[in-house]
Amino acid sequence: MLTNADFLALAGKQGDFTARIRLRPRYIDTDSCTACGLCTQYCPRHHVDPYNEGLALTRPIHIDYAQAVPATYYIDPESCLYLQHDTCQICVPVCQSHAINFNQQPEELDLKVGAVILTPGFGRISGKTLAKFGYEAHPDVVTSIEFERMTSASGPFQGEVKCFSDGRHPHRLAFIQCVGSRDLGCDNGYCSSVCCMYAIKEALVVKEHDPDVEITIYYMDIRTQGKDFDKARERAEAMGIKFVRAKVAGVTPWKNRLQLTYSTLDGRHEFEPVDMVVLSVGLESPRDAAGIADITGIELNRYDFAKSDTLSPLTTRRAGVIVAGAFQGPKDIPESVTQASAAAGIAAGLLKKQRGQGIVHKSYPREKDIGDEVRIGVFTCHCGINISSVVDVHAVDDSVEDMEGVVYHTDSLYSCSQDAIETLKQTIIEHNLNRVVIAACSPRTHEPLFQETLKDAGLNPCLVEMVNIRNQCSWVHAAEPEAATDKSKDLVRMAVAKVRGMQPLPEQTVPVMPKALIVGGGIAGMTAALTLAGQGFDSVILEQGATLGGHLGLLNHTLSGSETAKYLKHLVAQVKKDGKIEVLTSARLVQIAGFIGNFASVVATGTGEAAKEHTVDHGVIILATGGHEHRPDGYLLDKSNKVVTQLELEKRLAGKARNRAPGSVVMIQCAGSRGDDLNYCSKVCCNHAVKNALQIKEINPDAQVIVLYRDMRTYGFAEDAYREARLKGVVFIPYDLDHKPEVYEKGRSLHVKFFDSILREETDLTPDLVALSVGIVPDGTDGLSKLLKAPLTDDRFFLEAHVKLRPVELPVDGMYVCGLAHTPKPVDETIAQAQAAAAKAAIPLVKGSVSVDPIVSHVDQDTCIGCGLCASLCPFAAIEMVKVGKKRKAHTIAASCKACGICSSHCPTFAISMGGFTNEQITAQIEAFGEVSEKETTEVS
Amino acid sequence: MSDDFKPRILGFLCNWCCYAAADAAGISRYQYPPNLRTIRVMCTGRVDPAFILRGFVEGADGIFTGG
Amino acid sequence: MGKGMEHRAGSVMVLGGGIAGLQAALDLTELGYYVYLVEKSAVVGGVMAQLDKTFPTNDCSL
Predict the structure, then answer these.
(1) Given a contact as 3+ CB pairs under 8 Å, which chains touch C?
(2) Which Pfam families does the UniProt entry name for this protein (chain C) (predicted)?
């Protein structure tokens, strides 16, 4: 990890790049800094804190936030007295670990790399644009990012929302959407795609804090097209947050408040007094976009984002240079994470031959037998002064002297420093310790380090227990040193009691079958298979239809003009000739057994005479089952030949008929979606409508096209096409749920009745054609969900392991999802997601084995009565009932177990124990807790 | 007596949420009374009702389960 | 991760240590490649670390 680093040059070609990097000095030695924070306390100079958006002060020598990585302080040269004025240096003697080094100089390095992934993120909207809304001129106009820091409980105001002008709590709050987005005035014609969602999130946070705040969001279209995002909007409306479709003209001071001037759709001008205005700022291209493009030779689009093709969304003009994240186009966290995984997968494919060569494999001494004698070592850490300034570390150290089993104890200044680790290792060997207690900081951050040390010393890594006397003691009881010392003693005694019962737990590994099963042979499934094949892994594609291709075959071109049919043909050919991909058509999954690394699936192919069943052994499974068009009732679809879906319209427009682009067309958006039959937004229909509208205009410029919509969700760069359609005379009219368009037949003519919200009157048209934007429903997820024990959302899409951070993995290990089975999405997002799913699926395949944390559950076959309670309760399907002799017994599938312990705590015969958390150990801890109570009770009486 | 009552509380903290939150409380130097003694478990699902009873037997005035 | 200048076969440079860069770097490491994560500021995490109500887990285990 190279931080404080500038990217200077890139030479060479794919597989053999040389990247020149300049490291700016941090002035603090990262290996020595213990992040104790003493330096910041002594530093005399103030420094405006950019991490807190300038809402707080810090010091030139600081760390951005407590969890920062690297967890090392740094000196900002801009405001450091020594670096600016050659004076001070007070921090140098203060630092107990001698980490401060003002002699550090910038350093340049050449990195030899095979591929480059560009993820520079996004930039900020210019002050000029913000100034249009009174930013800078009035303190109570803030940006959404500033507001985010304000509402953060760990932020400078502890989550309290206050007006900067006089510190009062705002009673009326306004969010202005599309600041720096969809605005040609600042040359940002695109939609930033994320602001609607975060504005709603911020509004909800404030509303939850203080239900009396009146919040209004001023918007053009609410673009909550992401998975389950509309639900948040509905929740916001239910909580009383107001949404007003209006364009805000300006924000002006008014008495001690602000006045918002806005114009609504029907041309009215309104004024609204508010206390505070939040500007929902868009995502600008990164500030150094031009520089990056210069260095790497990639192409930028007209808005200075990386230019890429819809059908290969992450690759650039320069081979071996891949883009991901917001630089590829404004996007939210799950999309960025998906693209990042996809980029990793692509890079991995490019460098297949070099895989594993750069990684160093560490070897450990053989684990020694620990024997019967308990030999505990207790190590208490001062953590500089972090612990010892409150807790009497020596007293804690002394308190273990007479404890049963303790043969060695000591204290150290920094237990985690490199030399202390080495000493620990030597001490373990020298004193033949077989259990270790470290009283220091959190096992969540440092347990892996000490486990590693035990391994180095020839002990099983499970024989260490940490006692958290820093985060959960000295830091939180700063004013009560005696009580904190008592607490530390108690906690250490409890830990000693626990480790007495510790046993080495073998690290379990399960070999992985290096093959993937991919369900679905559409664009998602094929892309995933090819990405895996690119990395050298076999896969089997199950396609339920007779041929590969799926939904994409129904499209003609994409909004950006890419030809889908040609691409699909090319893709199918590639899949067919790839020796690593086996395709089973007319196939469906009927049974699946096993767990990550070792699945065995039964696949049925053919029907009638030709019906056959195959068994496929595979290590992972990717679900790319796709979806299909929803056909809603109530719009005369399938009843009148003048009512078609957008897909049918697209097909018609691609044909040769002379009247294929009729003289008048009404398009109805959200037909059957967003609250009707389908409860969600299908994300693609607005783009589809715009695409078809443009195509009609292309063929027949005189055609009248009217689009009735609720929110036009042409997010990202598709906004350009929406604008183009308007310029070409396509009329867009919003409708609301109280005035839904009605389609009916009268005689031979087809009528559409709707309320024109611009003219504010009821309108009745007789168009030649009505095109419905109908939404997408997933294919066969119900059955698969039961088969795989993988949960679905309310809308029958697969639920991912973590919506933001693990968007292509399912909660069940070894299962991945992409394409429409995850949620409706356009083809570029499907491709990136398929690449991401393949990259994630490749991880266990590359490793060749899955290792299991030894803290999993274990069933004692003798005590188990086979009641099956545990198997029914396990949330991860990690317990199976097996036949042992004539009896039914529970058995843990270690690879699936997440160590939650529900089975163990419910087992009526105490037959199940948890590695590292056995009943005996926890009971011993509780007993040790009790020892002092008894002592105190005796003292009192 | 009532004013001086310092209950001894035994806590079972889930490694993934409550224990993590307790760590975070430390990072932001949030101060709270030092009466709590904690046992880390991988999930509060691990907490057998027997543990709670045992805690009371061992003299706890209150038991806290965080997950 | 050291600042070693030695040539490592199968390395990838990731430019930018925001959520996308971190995810790409983590995945590449797991896929068996050596990663240079190049970040212009002093910490990784990017804008996501500033956000309030998402999980700034920052569990970057490079």
Answers:
(1) A
(2) FAD_oxidored
